[in-house]
Amino acid sequence: MFCPKCGQPSSDEIRFCPRCGLPLAPHAALLAGGDAPAAPPAGAQAPARTRKQIATRRAAKLMFFSVVFMPIFIGIGVGVEGAEPLLVPFFAFLAGLAWLVYARLFVDDIAPPRASRKDLKAGADRPALGAQQFVPAASFYQQPATTAEIAQPPSVTENSTRLLDKDA
User: Fold this and answer.
1) Is the dihedral of CA 90, 95, 101, 104 positive or negative?
2) Ordered mean pLDDT values, 10 residues apiece, the chain (168 residues)
3) Phi, psi (deg, nearest 5) at residue 99
4) Beta-strand (E) ranges in 56-144?
5) What is residue 126's predicted lDDT score, i.e. its pLDDT?
6) SS3 category, 122
7) Which pLDDT score is estimated for 117?
8) Residue 64, CB half-sphere, CA atoms under 13 Å: how many?
9) 2: which strand partners?
10) Which residues contact 41 (CB under 8 A, 6 or more apart)?
11) Is 160 in a helix, a strand, or coil?
12) Helix (H) or strand (E) holding 27
């Protein structure tokens, strides 16, 4: 069987492509029986948010809460008869704005690894990965050749020695 993604040949017993990691079980079932691939389970998770989306969302929350709490700090400023309490939501808003600009410009757009609750509950009693698969690797180890079985080539001087022995 060949991997549909990268074209790597592999045996039918392997569940994942050794080169790119694509799950081969649905494709093997499709090729073997002509069946449609199985639908994902009902409890399938939505795609994970990227780091950029997470950072942008946190910055927007900080800016939102600084605006929401502004009336409270205005009330505190009126109570103490000064404008110093208004600096707290102002600087929180500026921090959120700076965080937002940083996230949009410099944070990578990749999804962070996400552990499910099942994996966290599994603990040390069972591994998070599936069972190890056995792949015969006969071509990786070859027996060394024994030098006793190799035929020795004739010596360079052997023919000259024979000619000299005939002349004498």
Assistant:
1) negative
2) 77 78 74 57 64 91 94 91 89 94 87 61 57 62 64 71 77
3) -65, -40
4) none
5) 58
6) helix
7) 58
8) 6
9) 9
10) none
11) helix
12) helix 25-33
